[in-house]
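My convention is simple: the sequence line spells out the residues, with the fold written below as integer tokens. I include a record here:
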Amino acid sequence: MTNLDLNTASAGAIISGMKAGELRSRDVLEHFLARLEQHNPSLNAVVAQNIEIAREQARLADVKQQSGATLGALHGLPVTIKDTYEVVGMPTVCGSSSLREHLSKRNAVAVQKMIDAGAIVFGKTNVPRFATDFQSYNSVYGQTNNPWNLQCTPGGSSGGAAAALAAGITPIELGSDIGGSIRTPAHYCGVYGHKPTQGVISLRGHIPGPPGVLSEPDLAVAGPLARCAEDLELLMSVVQGCTEIEARRGPVKLPRCTKKKPAQFRVRFWMDETLCPLDASVMNAYSHLLDVMKSAGIQVDIGAPEEFSFERVYKLYLRLLGAQLSNTAGKWQRLQLKAAGPLIQRFGEYFGAGAHMEEFFAGMAMSYADWQRCNERRWRLIEKSEYLFSQYDVLLTPIVPTTAITHDNERAVHRRQIRVNGRTRPYTDHLPWIALATALGLPATSAPIAVSSQGMPINIQIVGARYRDANCFAFAKVLASLTGPIARPAAFF
């Protein structure tokens, strides 16, 4: 038997141990089930379980391993899945009472790829209702807590996933992201998360949209969460690719990154905008990171890229987001939304709305012709991003302005606020820094770099050129080598 610490080991190390015969899948599963029993009551991260079936699958995985058969990349690895993905025989509730009785009859495409590679699904993790909040709570399963501080949220919508990873309940997770739903929980919980290039991983079998929808949504992506950058890369290699029908437009092959040493990287560091200021705890961590990078010989330029206006990118993102989230709105609702935009623009501060939220409402009510014009603006920005990334390997930015916020589930969303440097800021300040990568379909990795003086983790966002996901992973590994692993939530280790 190996001396590998399963509480903290990477998924890759666990898989290597099983393939070498030093670990059995059954023992690994029982370890995580014991962690689940011990720690999930205080976290409420895993909300559905598949234990007996998982045990039988682990037994069969051990038999197959001993037979000398060819093994998949995730062979025998117990995993959890965000409860927005269809998993056969398990409920896919997506935090909604309307789906309380919904049992999946078909696996989501990305989930099927994981299972085909040998993964064993033993649980599903909590999300906000229909995955549309920056906190993970709902009327069906309740509130998920952050393992670093139970009074804080792990973020949303992949909050259960990030909390389970941070507490050592699961070794790897499949999340999704349209408004920072992978990147923000990873930041709040001090784990790794990756929003891939748009279209690289199929979202078929993801809720929302409604169960059974075949089309792929705008802006939204599937992506991995993990304990290290290497595991992000591992899961990406398994789940990338589309369905056979979708693949007719041509296979997606992501280029490799040949750079490994710090001094080989050219970096743009964008960490200051008056529209969405950072808390001092976050800014101090980034300032220290800047010193560390320069000392390591990394070529760093500071400030906003000339190619982009922070405000214009954010307004475009809100329009596109509104359009995507309006697909279930009826004619009367659209008329109401159209009327709401000017009111928000004029009285938004009174209503507690954040900057430019009128763009979101305008997006929810806009015509297809208006959407086409927005899409043209997006592609012009994508073209500008190609120039930016011809000068730099990656762009570093914040994810959200502060460390994990305290639970705030009782107030209406428009009444919620966050605190930055002792002052109240709009709840929607969760969105501006994640907007660029989402609107333009760029890959972005959320990587832990520090723990604040208040004992909460801080991540950085590593943005790359389209299809250059490997650059994000490579630079995340470089940062890990420079900063070292951050501390873990003490109550769980």
